[in-house]
Recover the amino acids of this structure.
């Protein structure tokens, strides 16, 4: 699945505080909060992270484990993608094939997560899941919430391109380097029989 999981909140569980998180730059599903819980990294089939989170949320409710499986986080970051000459904002998963689960680890909660369709296992030593330090979780959340989206390049070094805008329009060349932060590429263009590097915006070139 490529769609992003949205923030979802379920009816409050007695004696457990219900939390809603609305940070726009990452997919997160929150059930409830418990200070005894820790964050664990769960490995999933790549591309199925959102579906796994939704399935686990429903299993948690059906099995009455709201007090033990508390939160699911799929780290994503917004990027500007140049496609067919147009800019569009997309959400790209930072760790494809992984999701974070905040939970109180018991035999029952471990089994519920481990047997969820699409889950291949926990990250840890042997069969024992290893908790993720809270500071690392905070660092990931800060990274996801960074300001302006960056560019996502659809080019690779050495790729043949055609310049479609600017003083070198219709020239052919090859990608020398890519700057995703600025949304620019350096193209080697043959001018007067010599390869000359020309810096262009992503929108000024197309793949041949």
């Amino acid at each position: 699945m490529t769609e992003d999981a949205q923030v979802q909140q379920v009816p409050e569980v007695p004696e457990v505080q219900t939390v809603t998180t609305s940070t726009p730059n990452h997919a997160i599903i929150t059930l409830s909060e418990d200070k005894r819980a820790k964050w664990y990294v769960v490995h999933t089939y790549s591309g199925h992270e959102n579906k796994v989170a939704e399935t686990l949320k429903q299993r948690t409710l059906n099995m009455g484990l709201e007090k033990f499986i508390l939160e699911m986080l799929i780290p994503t970051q917004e990027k500007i993608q140049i496609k067919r000459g147009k800019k569009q904002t997309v959400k790209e998963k930072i760790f494809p094939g992984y999701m974070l689960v905040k939970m109180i680890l018991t035999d029952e909660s471990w089994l519920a997560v481990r047997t969820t369709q699409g889950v291949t296992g926990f990250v840890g030593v042997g069969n024992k899941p290893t908790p993720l330090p809270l500071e690392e979780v905070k660092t990931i959340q800060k990274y996801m919430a960074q300001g302006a989206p960056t560019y996502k390049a659809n080019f690779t070094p050495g790729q043949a391109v055609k310049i479609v805008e600017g003083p070198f329009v219709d020239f052919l060349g090859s990608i020398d380097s890519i700057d995703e932060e600025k949304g620019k590429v350096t193209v080697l263009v043959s001018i007067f029989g010599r390869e000359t590097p020309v810096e262009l915006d992503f929108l000024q070139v197309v793949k041949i």
